[in-house]
Design a protein that fits this description.
By secondary structure, the chain is mostly helical. It is built from 4 helices and no strands. The longest helix has 22 residues, at 18-39.
Length: 81
């Protein structure tokens, strides 16, 4: 069901350059948009891009073997509105 960067491990995200992380964060935005539409909810409404990236970096640092998709799901659960 999940395609693309969501299948990569957090270790890959951790070792990415800042320019590459922009692509991951774009994937996260698309994943969240889809989730928002399907669930008819708006997640992380007032969370800035920088805060989002820092949260994802922290999650991936602490959970290096998790997939980026799991990081995205955890992010959505952390910021339900």
């Amino acid at each position: 069901m999940v395609k693309g960067l969501g299948l990569t491990k957090c270790t890959t995200f951790n070792s990415a350059t800042n320019d590459e992380k922009v692509i991951y964060m774009s994937w996260l935005a698309g994943f969240m948009s889809s989730h928002n539409i399907l669930k008819k909810k708006l997640h992380a409404k007032n969370i800035t891009y920088n805060r989002s990236q820092l949260w994802i970096e922290s999650f991936c640092y602490n959970n290096p073997n998790q997939t980026f998709k799991n990081a995205a799901i955890s992010f959505i659960k952390e910021f339900p509105k």
